[in-house]
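ok so i was messing around last nite and threw this chain in just to see what happens. nothing serious, just curious
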Amino acid sequence: MAVRQNLHYDFLFKVILVGEEEQIKTGLLWAFTGNCDMNSDYKRTIGVNFGITSICSNESVIKLQIWDILCNSRVKYLPLYFKGASGCIMVIRNIQEAKAYLEEIENCCNKLIPILFVYINDEPNIPQLNEFLSKFNIETITNGVQGIEWLAEVMLTSRRNTEARFPLAGLYSIGNAEIQEVLETLHQSQQQVEQKRLETTRIQRAMQIELLEGYLDDLGLPVEQDSVQILSSEALFIINILDGNVSVYPLICEQCQKYCKKLGHLCIVKDSEGWSGELDSESLLILSKIYALLNNQLPSSIVNQIKTILQCPNYQASSPRN
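result:
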């Protein structure tokens, strides 16, 4: 089983990410989903940030929508954010934190959901913790990738068979000194899995990619490293022709470049009858994204996404660079 991002999926689960350790939670979201917008105002304004990742299990693709929730007294919307959750990643340093969040989950979710405990402590074998967790059917997790895979499998098992017995909790212990190293390693492993996925996609869609490259050549857009680039007066758009992902790199001021590398992703979904019967629906969607960006024919919702990505206190619009 492997972690990956994917446009298509067989199962979708909402996962809440809770805990007092905001920097560690943000790091986990980055490691699991590639959401690297560390300066996002989402959590400060609405109390939550989002990331999406997918797990490949046998022949099924399990998509996880991870809600990184700002858990403090100022947030009044926990019941709304917890509602509909199928699983939880809980970052804790002590039993008191775990008990408080478990109570919130029981009150807000109205059902028992599997929990991946990420326990930050240099002494993982604490008797009080073991006693507290003894009421769960607990499974020991050895690394972060195994943990997210375990959570996806348990949620899928629960959906397929509500009477099946399965572990209700996974415990992943990590020392204070290991945190940054573990997050970096986890992110690197995710990138390696993503690279393998793209290589597989390239082989499976070889004929479609060749056709797509031909159409793009007619539009004057060369394909380099499986991507095409479109430069506007405000941003550089990079469209991956293998999976259709659109990355946005603002043209930021020199001051920002010293401390801020901002990156955003667009979600462009639009029905299209396409240019030719030769291209399948996935290729047509990729081509329609490129055409819309080239001709500035974007829906207002996409324009708003771009404005959000471009927001920066020190941003100054630049002219296109050669």
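not much to say yet. The two ends are 43 Å apart (CA to CA).
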